[in-house]
Amino acid sequence: MSKASSPEHMQLNVAAPPGFDAEAIPIHLQCSQDPKVSPQILQPEQLRQRIQNPPQWQPEITDENRHVIAADIIAKRQAAGKITQAAVLIPLLLKEGGLSVLLTQRTQHLHDHAGQISFPGGRMDPEDLTPENTALRESQEEIGLNPANVEIIGHLPQYLTVSGYSVTPVIGLVQAQAEYLHDEFEVADVFEVPLSFLMNPANHQVRIWQSAQGMRRFYAMPYENRFIWGATAGMLRNLYHLLKA
Questions:
Q1: Which of 78-113 are b and which e, b meaning 16 or more Cβ less than 10 Å from the residue's Cβ?
Q2: Per DSSP, which regions of the chain are E strands?
Q3: CA 230, CA 48: separation in Å to the nearest integer?
Q4: How far apart are CA 209 and CA 48, in angstroms?
Q5: Integer distance in angstroms from the first to the last C-alpha of the chain?
Q6: Is the distance from CB of 240 to CB of 37 less than 8 angstroms?
Q7: What are the tens digits of pLDDT across the range 98-147?
Q8: Is position 210 within any domain?
Q9: Which CATH number does the domain housing residue 162 bear?
Q10: How many domains does the chain have?
Q11: Most buried residue, 43, 109, 133, 145, by CB count within 10 Å?
């Protein structure tokens, strides 16, 4: 990606307003020229080794992350006594045709990231000793994922969200279940996307939203009738950087 199009050269912007239609924002850049991930790395054993013994690599800092830091959002929430630590599970389903990523569609009435596609997860509760505990507990509550079916193999660096959370993405290899019983209050749908699709940079888009405050750039990874963007796409982009390193 050219230096001119890197996040450092974009002015920060505040969070998207209510009713923001990310899918309607024009594509600025298709990342098809970025390095490809080796197909061998996407095999379970090789992926486990890469996650647990990573080479030197650099996470990507998105405009969302920059805005959180510049506006001191997390420190302000902490000063107000609010929980800021959270975790999500990146569930990699062990399927005959290759690994798939299990994702959820959030319900429209939720306060944070309503209607968006996300990983199962949420805020750390006092009884959660580790981010892994949070990710497994929330996954069981939200989609009925049995923790016994999950092998935790590592995590990505924390991702800062504009909603004021420092999120640890926990990576797990998952024995696929026949059925996922999702919490209908929080989760509208549960679906799968091939990991090979999400780790192919040709499927990564950069979109730029122009507002009165300036430009905000975000990643999107449209798949069939699903529009994956924002924090979820940012975390997937970091997984891509780790696997292609």
A1: eeeeeebbbbbbbbbbeeeebbbbbbbbbbeeeeee
A2: 27-30, 85-94, 100-106, 117-118, 121-123, 150-155, 159-160, 166-175, 187-194, 205-211, 214-223, 226-229
A3: 26
A4: 36
A5: 15
A6: yes
A7: 999 999 997 866 555 556 899 999 999 999 999 999 999 999 999 999 99
A8: no
A9: 3.90.79.10
A10: 1
A11: 145
Give the Cα separation of 86 and 96 in Å (integer): 32
Q: Is the pTM above the cut of 0.85?
A: yes
Classify residue 13 as exposed, middle or buried by CB count within 10 Å of its CB (0-12, 13-18, 19+).
buried
Residue 242 within any structural domain of the chain = no
Closest listed residue to residue 201, CA positions, set 7, 54, 37, 41? 37
**Least-confidence region, from 41-50, 77-86, 134-143, 215-224:** 77-86
Instruction: Specify if 16 maps to a domain.
Output: no
Q: What is the pLDDT averaged over residues 214-228?
A: 94
Q: Which residues pair with 155 in a beta bridge?
A: 170
Please list the residues that pair with 91 across neighbouring strands.
Answer: 172
Q: Which amino acid is at 12?
A: L
What is d(CA 43, CA 50) in angstroms, rounded to the nearest whole number? 10
The domain of 139 spans 39-200
The pLDDT assigned to 6 comes to 40
